Amino acid sequence: MKGALSWPFLRLYLLSLLYFSANSILNVLIPLKGDSLGASNTEIGLIMGAYLFTTMLLRPWAGHIIQQKGPVQVLRTIIVINGLALILYTFTGLEGYFFARMLQGACTAFFSMALQLGIIDALPDKERSQGISLYSLFASIPNVIGPLLAVGIWQSGEMTSFAWTMLAIVILTGVAGFSIRIDNPQVSAPGPTEQRVSHFRSFSQLYTNPYLFRCSVIMLIASIVFGAITTFIPLYAAEIPNGSAAVYLTLQAGTIVAARFFLRKRIPSDGKWHAGYVMTIALIVAASSLGVCVSGSVWGGTILFYISACLMGISQALLYPTLTTYLSFVLPQQGRNVLLGLFIAMADLGVSMGGAAMGPLADLTSFSVMYLICAFLGVLMAVFSYDRRGKLSSAATLDS
Questions:
Q1: Helix-helix angle 336-356:301-330, to 10 degrees
Q2: In what residue span(s) does the Major facilitator superfamily (MFS) profile domain sit (predicted)?
Q3: Residue range 319-348, pLDDT digits in tens
């Protein structure tokens, strides 16, 4: 496999596009369905948050299993289980949605880890950031049309079309998943002692390893904001004159896709900590959240609302590939899979908290107050990204 845009890698990206298509529809339909059934924001947040909370818990274990079994075998098993979860959505209510979200979250823990680790191991260092960015790009493409499709299904009142859509995604993902190949997956089977040490000591490195600690905190804070946007925009948009959740989410996703493709070569892939670069992304997160907060109370709020969608898309497009690529250089080779799994788990935890924790806050106050707090979190993220002494940059250079 040569080059991030070679055909074998394009097949992996296509598989990620198909896999995440269902979630782009469910992210809009579940809040709307829950609201129509009288569920509170807290209940909707818990259902939505169950997906990535489960993913977070299983990330480190996924790293171990992938190291032992190889990414291809894991991917094929997970695709079958995920198909069963998607079918479950078609004939159950909110209780069934909660279980399906958990099952889907478990599948995503293994699916995304297998693809990302396979890409990292197969690509040369200089193209590593491009590979991660392109994977994230294709995983985001469904969010361009998914919200529009979901709103169309909901407004039609015909949930039969929803069932057929889920079934089509299951079939297409299965066909794509069982035909892929990943060369040089670096499969190994560590002994029991090595596995125990890696598994238990890895958790302590969340705060003892300075690289992992800083990146994890930044990603956690940002993901709380991302999760709050994804979960509650379908409901908050109704408070904005002429506001449309489908347009917002489509603009956000379209910006993510464009930024990840056209800016992929701008993402650092040298193992150095670029504090100014990360701080700029954090301030974009803050500006976007503030725009969402005030768009419901000012004249011309619809324009500001949609500008915020584009800003949020830019920050989402750049932050995750930047931090993941940096960690792939500076983390120790032994146990790197597990440590990367822990980092990605922090992103999952943040998105889950964006629904589960921000839902009760919105119930107690309002959506505007909740998004104002998200803006403050963006500023906090910028402060945490600042590296006054340049320790992370110099250390990363030595390690790489």
A1: 160
A2: 8-393
A3: 999 999 999 889 887 777 778 888 888 887
